[in-house]
Amino acid sequence: MTNLAQRLGIRDYFALAFGTMIGAGWLVVMDDWLRRGGPAGAMLAFAIGGIALLPVGWVYGKWVARLPDASGEAAYAAQVFPPLPSYLTGWIMTLAYLIVCPWEAVAIGKIAAYLYPGLNRYELYSVDGHPVFLPRLALGVLMTLFLAYLNYRGIRASASFQKWTTTAVLLLFGAVVLTSATHGSLTNFKPVFAATPLASVILTLQIVPYFMTGFESVPKAAEEAAPGFASGGFFRAIVLALFVGAGFYVLSIGAVAFAAPWQGLTGKSFATAVAFEQAFRAAWPVRMILTMAFLGLFQCFNGNFVASSRLFFSFGRDGRIPKQFGAIHPQFQTPHVAVTAVAALTLLGVLLGDSLLVPVTEVGSMASAFGWMVTCVSFAMVGSAVKGRAVAGIGAVVALVLLLMKLLPVFPGHFSFAEWMALGIWLAIGIALHLVTRTGNPENL
Fold this sequence. Notes:
By secondary structure, the chain is mainly α. The protein has 18 helices and 2 strands. A hairpin with a 2-residue loop joins strand 1 and strand 2.
């Protein structure tokens, strides 16, 4: 029987967690963050989100050490819940990763068109008023095929690529922050909130789960740890990624608001690049930022590709969906069918173009918060130590609050009809795939 290749170390797991979390959102939708909360509201929301998620990260670190299973949340939930709800928990979490892949593939064309406006030509069609251009569509397709090939060929190649891009992103980010400190003014922060302080923080906090999703990608690749890898390394990689990721977002918002008056950036494409262009009146800072964005796109896309393909693989292996998804390539030791499936679904998403960019953050935030909540509740129910159950309880409350902020109409920015429809369609697909295997696997009902 062929097993997944065991090649990953702690640096690989940190790069996976951080890279899955940090893509190009800080460039592509910075104007949306500022519009929601203003500089202070957005910075506070990401700082609060990062700190509040530490108990959740702690629970994931403990779970993966106890149960290193690629199905992640589904495996943890299965310890206390019936098979079908456990599977649907993992299926919803799969959406949080999978939905990022076409997001990043679309974003690469949008960023490239900022540098080369000529890419905004040869319109093929439009979706919800957003035109889809052939050159930008081709870039998204090529990016998807490249990462699919990389992951098809082996986890070592994918992990090395992830470490290289993560290192480059962090180095360039340091240069961006230091560059911002030499220009701009604190007066650019005023007004510090977009609305009232509480509303500003809440509106931004609602989308924080989507942009912080990634630290929990570590368990999905836990079965691919190198021989002799200490289980405590999972925990360290997760917590470090949370700290560094939250700090990254807080500093990037601060750097942009310091560089230029933030109210003039709302509604602007690539508000981050626009801010630095205004502050320096030169092209080189913008090119540095866009280079960093391209690398971020690749690391985030690759990390989410790994996580979603491993979830599909685990569901197929466990008989939750057709068993073909659980196949392992005899030579490359990769879940090649699951990798192909993720690539195909990503290519379908790319066809939606720019209309995909902001709405998916809403659905992804809900999916992440739900998976975090079930994971914490499961740990609280199986844990014996009072301290561990208390931390898991705190994590469950944090995740529940984030979940309710997206679902309850009393909160601004709650789910719209279209977002409920997207969630319903995804659940229907998951149930349909599960029912296909029902006859041969009655124990999974």
